[in-house]
Specification:
Layout: H1 5-14, H2 17-28, H3 39-50, H4 54-66, H5 68-76
Length: about 90
Amino acid sequence: MEPTARIRRRIEQDFPLQAREEVSNALARYGEQPHEREPERVQLAVLILADGNLDKIAHYLEVASKDYRDVLWWSETPPLGDVPPDWIG
């Protein structure tokens, strides 16, 4: 699956030129299986979590292939330390 413009921009932002094709190819494999849902959202979550680290791309893609909701939760939920005090019960 060809990466969307949004995914390409994030790859260009986070990775050096020589790593971009490898990152793009790795991300493109997510979504090939029927259980791999929401490919663009998951790919973006993986990029956010990897934070420019090529080794982390493979790790988070493996997590996503088992349960994509994990990477979505981790990338979209602020750490508890960043939650305003009035949110804590």
